[in-house]
Amino acid sequence: MFSDRLIKRMKKARSVAVLTGAGVSQESGVATFRGEDGLWKKFKPEELASVEAFVKNPVLVWEWYGYRQKIILKTDPNPGHMALADMEGIFPDFALITQNVDGLHRKAGSQKILELHGNILVSRCMSCGTKSDRIEPEEDGMVPRCACGGRMRPDVVWFGEMLPQDILSQAFEAAERSDVFFSIGTSAVVHPAASLPVAAKEAGAYVVEINPERTVLSGALDETIIGKSGEVLPRLVSRLRESGKEA
Ligand code: BJW
Ligand code: ZN
Predict the structure, then answer these.
(1) pLDDT: is 134 or 151 the higher one?
(2) Which atom in ligand 1 lies closest to the alpha carbon of residue 48?
């Protein structure tokens, strides 16, 4: 399953960066966005994940986020999340960059996490910016309000919105200084996150994708390991430990 080239690069690596997407949480029971069982099969992204959509129909948008929050609260990290938490202890410089908003990497014990698209379990007031970790809305058909009277929205990054700039800069820096970069469980169509594997490759990293399917990026990377992250990652960590790689 693992090429000699990859194991050799990983044994020598000081700096490793990982980009994760919705596929990493699929084995925890969180639906991906695109693909056969993807969330966007039922809902169009532009109808739900943009400021325009929220302004047009805040009740519908909150129903979708409330539904997902309730699912996410009941989920637990899977062996893929756990293996990534283990990897943090193996390399002196390790960055976990995630597009996921479910908080499962933190629940698995990862500490150095760069959340590019925010956190679905946090809400933010559109008027005063106050954040809350109350699960919203308490009833269907409601739009939660802040104490100031402003509308609360999920603290995530919607289409057309800027990503948090300090986190994005740290992500590009980590990608560019990495010796090995992994793109795991992402369709790699949403930018700027999808530019990270390319930036890593251009800066000289060995770039590896882990996904049950090839993606638009596969041809531009060093290798694609076809498989589920919850199966591939624990085997990779075991293989590294067998090869004598320890922090
Ligand atoms: C498994 C598996 C298993 C399944 N194991 N794998 C450059 C070019 C073109 C467009 C743009 C560009 N720059 C910016 C844009 C516009 C836009 C964009 O990228 N559009 C494209 C879609 C065309 N980007 C933006 O608007 C971003 N903002 C921005 O750039 O601001 C600057 C700016 C502003 C204004 C004008 C100009 C510039 C913001 C993007 C925000 C994305 N937000 C979302 C919603 C978050 C909140 C929520 O959760 O509701 O983030 S969209 C959604 O997609 C979510 C995800 O994080 C993101 C990525 O999806 P991901 O993780 O890749 O999931 P999937 O479902 O696509 O893929 C899952 C994969 O897993 C599949 O490959 C499966 O095979 C695999 N898999 N089982 C491993 N067991
Ligand atoms: Zn407020």
Answers:
(1) 151
(2) 50
